[in-house]
Amino acid sequence: MSFDIRLRGHVSDVAAQALPELVDSLVASGITAQDPALWGPAAEADAAVRLGWVDAVSVSRPLVAEIETLRDVLRSNGITRIVLAGMGGSSLAPEVIARTAGVPLVVLDSTAPGQVLAALDGDAEAGGLAQTALVVSSKSGSTVETDSAKRAFEAAFRDLGIDPTERIIVVTDPGSPLEIAARADGYTVFTADPTVGGRYSALTAFGLVPAGLAGVDIGELLDEAEATLLEVAIDDPRNPALVLAAAIAGGAPRADKLGLISDGDYLQGLPDWIEQLVAESTGKDGTGILPVVMLPVSPELDSRPADLRIVRIVDDVNHDHLFEHHHGEVLVSGSLGAQFVVWEYATAIIGRMLGINPFDQPDVESAKDATRRLLDARPEPTSPAFTAEGVEVRSTDPALAASGTLAGVLDDLWKLVPSDGYVAIQAYVNRLDLAQLSGLRELVAADSGRPTTFGWGPRFLHSTGQFHKGGPATGVFVQILEGTDVDVEIPGRPFTFGELIAAQAAGDASVLAAHGRPVVTITLTDPQPDVFALFEAAQ
To answer: What is the pTM of this model?
Structure first.
């Protein structure tokens, strides 16, 4: 299956107005030729070293045999469970690849101690640590979450009498600190093309190694992608990437919220991958397109905000019955490999339409710096503004806590959302134990009346975190933390996983506040029952 797109209602007119300029400017063939001048002089230096994803299919072909050979070796040694430690594009791409293929892959993209312990312990069905191999993925080779996971697994393997070099596989950029250290220590190392940014790396070693070791047919995935390359390379108004970009970023005023809906389950988790690609690529210089991952029954579908464009991922856009209730929507279908290619092209094209550099992430480092400062200083936790039903409430704006009730503080926060604004929920918790927390998004969207995003912390810091600081200053933020007695040491570090995730939440809140974004922090002191109190307050 290649990639199909259908536009319903007025969105067809929006795209028709934007397409001629995109075709005439030869942007599709320019991307294929890796022309760094397409995004203007200010972006040219970055673009010159960030367009390798265009050739990812051909560059990655030799990897298939290497990955399959290593998979066979691991299985012959009794390895039945693959864990991936990665963040952002390094974890979201292999996660959607494995989920869509129905292949088990444990993704550790969190510093929540309970989630780290679960990854270390395994389970009876999938196998425990003795049957586990770990893939460590980091482009820079210095990602704190990934490094911490690697340290924890190394120690755990040694405690079982297992040589970590037999169980840990590294994926990184050539010349990174991780590659240098890993090769010196005797680990198996896969290097990826350094001219591919993390969020565009789905079809490189970062997406293929963990998914392939878990059991996905990655050769087939590359075949799917290859079948779409000619379609996206031509300067033609039928080019699906041009049409998709024109439908999303065209029009005046522009709809700068992008609702992403999976109408069916043949592609598992694709909206989460699209979210990090679009948000981090476009959310900067005070502009951007904010992805909002929704359900087929989300409240935004009833209110239909004028600044929200809906893209619905369906199994077949040519089924007439799909068109009845989707006026003004963009419908897309296609194989996973085709989706990767079209969305990467479309996102780069949207960057040109917005007049920004789609390959940098200038505001991501600010939250990391704030985290490092807090870990160095170790300040005492601030007292809550109030505690209600066991839930502690803090805020960057004392006025928000004046009501003294959980429902009141949320209502007051919604009042600060501008008419073109949004709400962002950020849950720094163990998402395995508190998976139901994601349902809060639907309640908040209905209660606030505005598009609402939900992100698991700290992984969203490597994706939508860029948009929160660099995009339009129209968001309000709800942080959710958990009280827990569980903690895990990080070997060789002066802080624990619990201290790390707390510093990441506090650091991000401080940076958001410095950018004029209001933040309410809610700590669930007894997480399971407190979730119900939070849900009740948000209704």
So the answer is: 0.97
